[in-house]
Structure formats: C-alpha cells, structure tokens
Amino acid sequence: MNATVLFVGVALEWMAVNASFGFNQPLYADELIVNNVTYNVGSLSNQSIKAPAPTLGPPQDANIKLETRLDGQATLTNETTHIDSYSAKLVIPSTAQQGSASRALMSYNKSLSTLSSFGLGFIYNRCAAIRNLLGHQR
C-alpha cells in the first residue's frame, strides 16, 4: 500500500511548545525544500493552494495554506525571514488550550514513494520545541 501525501509543511503544536517553554515564541518559516527543489513560502495568494511543478534551478514560488486549530495563530509576515521577503509566522500563545496548533502547508498530492527528501528554512528561538516536534532528542 502506498499512501498519498496531501501536504508537506511545518506545524507548531501545543505539546512541543509546552515541553520547552516556547509559548508566545514565533516560528518563522520561509522556504520548503521538497525533492531538492526549494519553494518560497512568501507567495501566498488568498491562502489558496497551488501544486507547483518541480523544476531545478532557483527557488520556486509556492502558495501556502495556513491552518490553525483552537488557539493557534498562523499569519504571513515580513517581520523576520531567512531567504524570502515574507514568511509564515506560527505562534502558540501562552493562554492557548491544550491541542492548539498552527501550520503552514504546501499541496503535494502525490504518492509517498515520490517524496525522496524534505527540508525547511525557518527561524525559531526555542530550538528544543523543534527537536521535540521532529522527534529528536540530544
């Protein structure tokens, strides 16, 4: 059985920020790297989703869907970026209820076997929360 991957992206969840005291600490994500192709997060258009055609060369624009659950916050901003003009800003406020989350997702909609690599360009002050989010402990 080969599952279909609907989206790729980054999520900030209550459990991760609670474990590292990362409430109110924004995560800024401005690039997704899928199968060695870099996509810029900053080209958000009415929060719609467009599946870009993978090509080699300079970064491609990717329309990103911002999602929230419960008290999570997700916005497009130019406050802090890594390589692009804009980034997705994900925050879990200190008053958030357990289960809150925020996500920046790019449509993929292909079989799992076609996903050979995945990466992110982001800035986050609470790296422990990212390690917890990715399931790595050091």
Question: What does this molecule look like?
Answer:
This protein is mainly β. It has one domain (4-134). Helices cover 10% and strands 42% of the residues. The chain is built from two helices and nine strands, in the order E-H-E-E-E-E-E-E-E-E-H. The chain has helices at residues 14-19, 127-134; strands spanning 4-13, 27-34, 37-40, 60-61, 64-69, 73-77, 87-91, 101-111, 118-124. The strands form two sheets. Strands 2, 3, 4, 6, 7 and 9 form a six-stranded mixed beta sheet that branches. The radius of gyration is 15 Å and the shape is globular. The termini are far apart. The relative contact order is 0.33. The model is unreliable at 44-59 and 127-138 (pLDDT under 50).
List the helices and strands and how they pair.
Layout: E1 4-13, H1 14-19, E2 27-34, E3 37-40, E4 60-61, E5 64-69, E6 73-77, E7 87-91, E8 101-111, E9 118-124, H2 127-134
Parallel strand pairs: 3-4
Antiparallel strand pairs: 1-8, 2-3, 2-7, 2-9, 5-8, 6-7
